[in-house]
Amino acid sequence: MPKRPGVNQDRLVEASLELIQEQGEQGLTFVALAKKLGIKPPSLYNHVRSIDDLKYILRLRGLRLLESDLKNAVIGRSESAALHSLCHAYRHFAQTQPALYRMTLASTEHDDADLQAAGRASLEVLLAVLSGYGLEGERALHAIRCLRSALHGFVSLEIAGGFAMPLDLDDSFELLIRQQEQGLRELPPRG
Amino acid sequence: MPKRPGVNQDRLVEASLELIQEQGEQGLTFVALAKKLGIKPPSLYNHVRSIDDLKYILRLRGLRLLESDLKNAVIGRSESAALHSLCHAYRHFAQTQPALYRMTLASTEHDDADLQAAGRASLEVLLAVLSGYGLEGERALHAIRCLRSALHGFVSLEIAGGFAMPLDLDDSFELLIRQQEQGLRELPPRG
DNA sequence: GTCAATAAACTATTGTCATTAGTTTATAAA
DNA sequence: TTTATAAACTAATGACAATAGTTTATTGAC
């Protein structure tokens, strides 16, 4: 029973993604969004509860897109091939949608169940890859934290312009992957 | 020739740090800041050019504090001891001043020379530690990028609440350090 | 086809910001 | 004591999110 089939939440999210793609997260305002959709700002409240609600929706969307990309990257691959493909997919996601990536990883008090579930889904993909290295249980979870840290750290520094030295970024990233793989093959002893 | 020795830029920065410590970056407004200082918002423009200018100043302050902490952490230490101490200092900084850490690493179009210099200073500390591992030149720079990525990734995920699994974070961080050290001792071959 | 229900748009308004312009005040030096 | 000026002030503007209340268009029942 849709009454006026103009704007719906999907179109709203789509337009929001375009906005942050063009102007970054700070370009995402109800004024700009309404203009892009051809309606007045207050009408947006028929589709989202608030601008924070909209950002939450985008965050969730980002997490799910990322998980989808990661899953596609490892399909039909295992061990080293899977790891490399996954790492490149992760970086590619952040490079092509930097604003969405930033929002996805933004901290929030809104620790929602859906949000956690979406995050856990990506974790499952990593776990599957690590099982190919014979890692399971707590050891695997600790290892995943290290891998996630390296990936997130690299791509967030990269899209923030944090790597200033005139040195090939692809080379650095390849080294990072090799180091991670080495860390998985021979988990260093305590000490 | 100070005319009215009330608020100056140092007190302003100090109050700003308290504000973001208490309420996060979004709690940093000229209204709140002026109230904390006992003046009216427009008076703040006698000490900073804009709120973005203030955030730039805080970013710079954060970078310099971080560098100072890192430097102190490695003084009188070398190789493994230096690396461990440095990593823990890095994490400690982010844990105790999460909002400032977040701002420090925030992306900016304001790619200022002072900002770059401050960032490079921390890099020098890392370089000094790596030289103890026999790493120099481009190899050292690539290795630094990996180390920075791991550190930044871990602490930013940690302060964002990104590690949801019920698993000791200190243990994960220790593993991360050991993996990084292993990566430095035996730089993995290409392929 | 008419009409009631309602989703989705609208107008008008409020409150919170950052920011600017112009004015007053207090201090330091002459 | 006077003067220059840094640093406060008042008043106002414009962007934004958000709310209240109103209108409009479409759907579905009759």
Summarize, please.
The structure is a homodimer. The first copy, chain A, contains eight helices and no strands. With about 190 residues, chain A is an all-alpha fold.
Highlighted features:
mainly alpha; homodimer; DNA-binding; 8 helices
Structural write-up:
The structure is a homodimer of 191-residue chains. With 191 residues, chain A is mainly alpha-helical. Helices cover 69% and strands 0% of the residues of chain A. Chain A starts with 8 loop residues before the first helix and ends in a 6-residue tail after the last helix. In chain A, 33% of the residues are buried. Chains A and B meet through helix 6, helix 7 and helix 8 of A and helix 6, helix 7 and helix 8 of B. The first copy, chain A, binds a DNA duplex (30 and 30 nucleotides) through residues 1-7, 29-31, 39-43, 45-47, 50-51.
Rg of chain A (C-alpha, Å): 19 Å
Helix content, binned percent of chain A: 55-70%
Greatest interface (CB-CB under 8 A), with counts per chain: A-B, 50 and 49 residues
Low-confidence stretches of chain A: none
Largest beta-sheet details of chain A: none
* Element-level helix/strand string of chain A: HHHHHHHH
Number of helices of chain A: 8
Number of β-strand runs of chain A: 0
Identify the quaternary structure here.
Answer: homodimer
Strand content of chain A: under 5%
Shape of chain A: elongated
The separation of the N and C termini of chain A measures 65 Å
Quick check: average pLDDT of chain A? 92
Alpha-beta classification of chain A: mainly alpha
